[in-house]
Design a protein that fits this description.
By secondary structure, the protein is mainly alpha-helical. The protein is about 65% helix and about 0% strand. The chain has helices at about 25-50, 70-80, 85-90, 95-130, 135-160, 170-195, 210-230, 260-285, 290-315, 320-340. Helix 5 (about 135-160) packs antiparallel against helix 6 (about 170-195) and helix 8 packs antiparallel against helix 9 (about 290-315). The chain is flat, with a radius of gyration of 22 Å. The model is unreliable at about 1-15 (pLDDT under 50).
């Protein structure tokens, strides 16, 4: 006997338990996804405090521990003093100041190591005990490889600021964040498949799938463009809204190389964020009849996220507000990803 079930996105449905569809794997994937979300927040603090170049080497094992002696701290500080960033920006720093920025980069890397362990060790257990379906094993291996690649991408980004420039490449920063978002979305999608695929929905939402996909893609691009804003310190200029100076667009627009001009990059981020907001509100109206809790939360949250973006700009990128804006973007992406997922669910007529 088939039942038509209204989706409640805040409640995990009761679906049959099996070795390949277990609550344990579902919650494990959610924990990993949460850790990746937290990583984006830690990364935002690391970037905003200009801490990312404080560790000049990539030691996968030995680097898990911070310097433990005065001599070790002096050695690390000496390495940092040889970087372009220290010469151009932080030449005033003492070793006490250096310890402050070193902490955030060390914690950022430590958290990445923890994510790897929290994913890899349970995966081996679930694999050995037969809880991971054969057809899904390559997906989990792929996620493991992506996680390892993210560590390399992080170091590739850091290297760009250690040679002849006092900051990391905003292109590499965007690539680093892009890979993090891909991993995050893949973890959530696999979790959704495990626990929500048995749901039946009425009315059907398949007609809303194109809009949901477009909105998700626009949100993704907006977040990545935010990495360009951060990498170029573009949030430190034109700290007013909606005007940029005495007009709606910056006078620099079109006069300098687009991807290297902070004003143009900030303006584009504003446009993308506005478009994402409009598309999200349009999607809310399409989802309302099938899932009121999700649609109302999604509509309210996108407004909060836009406000956070504006306040971040007006505050000249105050760190707590900017980090909240970053985490808010990931939450919005999660809601949009779930919206895409439910448009794929089966419909059972009366």
């Amino acid at each position: 006997m088939l039942y038509i079930i209204k989706i409640n996105f805040l409640k995990v449905p009761n679906v049959p338990h099996s070795k390949t569809n277990s609550r344990a794997i579902f919650y494990w994937l959610l924990i990993c996804a949460f850790m990746v979300m937290a990583m984006t927040g830690i990364g935002a603090v690391t970037r905003l405090t200009e801490s990312g170049l404080s560790i000049t080497e990539w030691n996968v094992v030995s680097g898990a521990l911070p310097p433990l002696s005065t001599h070790a701290w002096q050695e690390e500080f000496a390495k940092y003093q040889a970087t372009p960033e220290f010469s151009a920006k932080h030449h005033w720093m003492t070793i006490a100041d250096f310890k402050g920025i070193y902490f955030w980069e060390w914690f950022h890397r430590l958290w990445g190591r923890l994510i790897g362990l929290v994913f890899a060790l349970p995966m081996v257990f679930f694999w050995v005990t037969g809880r991971i379906a054969r057809e899904d094993r390559l997906k989990y291996l792929g996620l493991l490889i992506l996680g390892g690649s993210q560590g390399f991408m992080g170091w590739f980004m850091v290297q760009s600021g250690l040679v002849d420039r006092p900051s990391v490449s905003h292109f590499r920063l965007a690539a680093h964040l892009s890979l993090a978002l891909i991993i995050y979305c893949a973890l959530l999608w696999m979790a959704f498949r495990l626990r929500f695929s048995e749901i039946r929905i009425n009315p059907p939402l398949s007609s809303s799938r194109p809009l949901a996909l477009i909105t998700l893609g626009c949100a993704f691009v907006t977040i990545i463009w935010g990495a360009f804003v951060a990498g170029l310190d573009a949030g430190m200029i034109y700290n007013s809204f909606p005007m940029m100076g005495d007009r709606l667009w910056p006078p620099e627009l079109g006069n300098t190389p687009f991807f290297y001009d902070p004003a143009s990059v900030q303006f584009t981020h504003r446009i993308l964020a506005t478009l994402t907001g409009i598309l999200t509100l349009g999607l809310v109206t399409r989802l309302y009849s099938a899932n009121k809790p999700l649609s109302l939360f999604l509509g309210g949250f996108v407004c909060v996220q836009i406000i956070l973006g504006i306040v971040t700009l007006l505050s000249v990128v105050m760190i707590p507000i900017a980090v909240a804006h970053q985490i808010g973007a990931i939450i919005l992406l999660s809601l949009l990803l779930y919206s895409v997922f439910i448009t794929r669910l089966k419909y059972v007529p009366d």
